[in-house]
Design brief:
By secondary structure, this protein is of the alpha/beta class. The protein has two domains: about 5-165, Rossmann fold (3-Layer(aba) Sandwich); about 170-290, N-(1-d-carboxylethyl)-l-norvaline Dehydrogenase, domain 2 (Orthogonal Bundle). It contains 14 helices and nine strands.
Length: about 290
């Protein structure tokens, strides 16, 4: 059976790895990125480089977007030369970006007006998970629609979870990132405290990682913080954005994320001090440099 043709819009930290795995699995692939040079390594592997989102979507049976935020997603789907208007009538649209549920609801309405099916399917994982095809997809939408594109998502993932109607994936992704942001922020403060306290840093971290506070996130982020290696796995500025989206979404459920406010201040301060395009673990640096 022939593989579905796929368009992938956005070749950032996550999208490049996702595209490589689609090609590895044998899917005919068109790619678009705002900075076209990022697409060139994929062209060497067989991808078609599209000039616009609309050009990428033409002829594709599945159109996948992996973009930075609501504004980028809106522009790529609905802007000039946007993908939505050019999508085939039988195409399935999948937005894997971390965006607000409000925007997903609006995008779903636009898709429905054209008779198109949309899934919101944000991912958990970092650059290394994207490159290894080990992402988790948090899916909102119709089960039959998901089943129709299952092989596409499976080629990039270790796990695909259908959570409920459109917007469900976006909601859980924001909860996930809120919890991660608070832990990273508290680790930045705790590690700075350790470094100034006179404690043996390695022994202290070994104890914490093995004890009640320990988690995979604490282990990986503390290693980056101690090595001062801020090679991007997840952009710091995008975590600041995700916290803002999480606060807004929680407020719509009459929930105040007071811990998110404290974490957001640390991340936004790091952005203001020039760390926005580094890995989120760099949130510790302004604390160290006080």
């Amino acid at each position: 059976m022939a593989k579905q043709s796929v368009a992938l819009l956005g070749l950032g930290t996550m999208g490049s790895g996702m595209a490589a795995n689609l090609l590895k699995a044998g899917f005919p692939l068109a790619v678009w990125n705002r900075t076209a040079a990022k697409a060139e390594p994929l062209a060497k592997k067989g991808a078609r480089i599209a000039s616009t989102p609309a050009d990428a979507a033409k002829g594709a049976q599945v159109v996948v977007a992996m973009l930075a935020d609501d504004a980028a997603s809106r522009h790529v789907w609905l802007g000039e030369n946007g993908a939505l208007a050019a999508a085939e009538k039988s195409a399935v649209l999948i937005d894997c970006s971390t965006v607000s549920p409000a925007w997903i609801s609006e995008l779903s309405s636009h898709a429905a007006q054209r008779g198109l099916h949309l899934l919101d399917a944000p991912v958990t994982g970092s650059r290394t998970h994207a490159e290894a095809g080990q992402l988790s997809f948090l899916v909102g939408g119709d089960e039959a629609t998901l089943n129709s594109v299952w092989p596409v998502l499976e080629s990039m993932s270790k796990e695909i979870v259908l959570l409920g109607p459109i917007g469900s994936g976006a909601k859980l992704k924001l909860i996930n990132n809120f919890l991660c942001a608070v832990q990273v922020a508290s680790l930045a403060e705790g590690l700075t405290w350790i470094e100034r306290s006179g404690l043996d840093r390695d022994k202290a971290l070994a104890f914490l990682k093995a004890g009640a506070p320990g988690s995979p996130l604490l282990g990986s982020i503390s290693a980056r913080m101690t090595a001062e290696d801020y090679t991007v796995n997840f952009f710091l500025r995008l975590m600041a954005k995700d916290i803002r989206y999480a606060e807004n979404e929680a407020a719509s459920c009459d929930v105040e994320l007071s811990t998110a406010l404290a974490a957001r201040r640390l991340f936004e301060n790091a952005v203001e001090q020039g760390y926005g395009d580094k890995d989120m673990s760099a949130v510790i640096e302004p604390l160290r440099n006080k």
